[in-house]
Specification:
single chain, mainly alpha
Length: 105
C-alpha cells in the first residue's frame, strides 16, 4: 500500500469510527466530523504519491523508520484528525503538514 493510500485508509477508518460513535447531545458533531473525514479520505486517495505531503509524513516518521509502513501518526496529528469537524479536505491536509513541520524543527 502506498503512503497516500495508507493515509486515506487511516482517515476513512477514523471517519467510520465517528459514524459509529453515539453521544447524547453531541449536536451532530460526530456526524459532521465523520463526513469531513470521509471527504478528506476520498480527496487524499486522489493525490499521487509524489505529493509533497508524503515527504513531510515520511520525514516525520509517520510510515515507520524507513518510510514504508502503514500510516501511524504521532499523538499531535492523531488528535488533530480525531478533532476535525469541518473544513475542506485540503485544509485538514495542510493542518497535518503544519503540525508535522512544527514538530520537526
Amino acid at each position: 500500500m502506498s503512503g497516500i493510500e495508507s493515509l486515506a485508509e487511516y482517515l476513512r477508518a477514523e471517519g467510520r469510527r465517528k459514524l459509529d460513535r453515539v453521544e447524547v447531545r453531541d449536536d451532530g458533531r460526530n456526524a459532521r466530523s465523520a463526513l469531513a473525514l470521509l471527504d478528506a479520505a476520498a480527496y487524499t486517495a486522489s493525490l499521487g504519491d509524489d505529493d509533497p505531503l508524503v515527504g513531510v509524513l515520511v520525514d516525520a516518521g509517520c510510515f515507520g523508520p524507513h518510510g514504508f509502513g502503514e500510516f501511524r501518526p504521532g499523538e499531535q496529528v492523531a488528535g488533530l484528525i480525531r478533532s476535525w469537524e469541518s473544513g475542506e479536505p485540503w485544509q485538514l491536509l495542510m493542518a497535518i503538514r503544519f503540525a508535522l513541520r512544527g514538530s520537526l524543527t
